[in-house]
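Bench log, entry 3. Co-assembly request; chain sequences pasted below exactly as received.
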Amino acid sequence: MSKFDERIKSELEQQTRADVHDLKEDIWNEVNVELFEGKKTIIKRRKRWMPAMLIAAAALVIAFTLQSKSGMALIKGIKDMFVPEKEIIQSIEGQDEPTEVYLNEGKDSEYIIYVDESRYKMIKGEDADIITTIEPLPEKYPEVSMEIKQYPTDKPETLVKELEEKLKVGFPDLRAVEIVSEPIEGFWLHGLTESTWDGKVIDVYVMSNGKDGSFVITEKYFLEAAEGHGARFHHMLQSFKIIE
Amino acid sequence: MQEKWVRKIRAGDQAAFRQFYEAYAGTAIRTASAITRNREMAKDAVQETFIRVYRQIGSYNPTLPFDPWFYRILTNECLRLLKRESPLLNIDSIENEPSLAEKSFEQLTELYDIIQALDDSIRIPLILKYSKGFSEKEIADILGLNQNTVKSRLFKGRKRLKEQLQSIREEDLS
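Structure output for the full assembly:
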């Protein structure tokens, strides 16, 4: 570093030093109240309860109504319990981005997920559903998709081990399995082929389907898109709910 | 260490978050203070940044460097506040800002004032480079710019600083 560089660095440090001294404790107090001790935390917890209660109610009603043919007609009403569209604020590359997301049902109405339909579409398949970009990306870009697949008879603990072994072939530096609570509660596998802009990234989440099986969500994107598509998949997956 | 903090913060570990705050707050405050040129705004920006980091740590990709992610949030928050306050940000509010107004004219250093008088497109990359020591690539990542653009702006910035200092010296001598 040249003398001139050192002078610039030193000037910036000197001119802002007092602010650090004056603000550091105040800021921590505010952050602490907001995150750990304040009213907002309580409100947030209450808010989290509401969807959980609605889902539980929906699951109960579905369980009863599926017993009869006439009950089937009520399923539409159950789906109506979830708002068809809503605005969420998602953080993309550090910027808050208001986004309209739309309710989508998975295969056989076994789950719901809110999809950012301004960018992605949901393709329903025989075995799995795939959320991918509306327009296919040019060939130079690796695949960008989020696949949701149910394994009715495989428990998450067993399945995650099998998937780990399989993924190690294409992702030699696959990270060890982690247990996560965000964006869903379950196991998380993460791999990257190489640290170039187009290095392939894979995130696999394995969660219980509430019975004897699992849901496996596989996100594929590339390194440069980690905080774009990767972050958007993360936000969409946060809305994933199983309808038992 | 960062990896450990990230993992613990993800798990909601408050003690780890406090340690992380202690390690990151100083430079974050300095950077925000230099970018916003306003102590209250810097306080709001740093506060909001730490709250967002705690709540949105799940969206951080651990395979990428942490500091550019953190400073992208901080810089965007500073810019958002500057933009929001810009209709009100007149000479009066700047003069009332403690870190500038409380100093006598003699105390105001030439170089800092010249940096702060630069256009934001040059001023902010310079602050990121000299406050935190970010590389051109990291600054490009933080600001969403091409690396060559950052290189060129840093070059222009240093050149202008030297020219301005030279011209002040010449005025003093004449």
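The two ends of chain B are 55 Å apart (CA to CA). Chain B touches chain A through 51 residues (CB under 8 Å).
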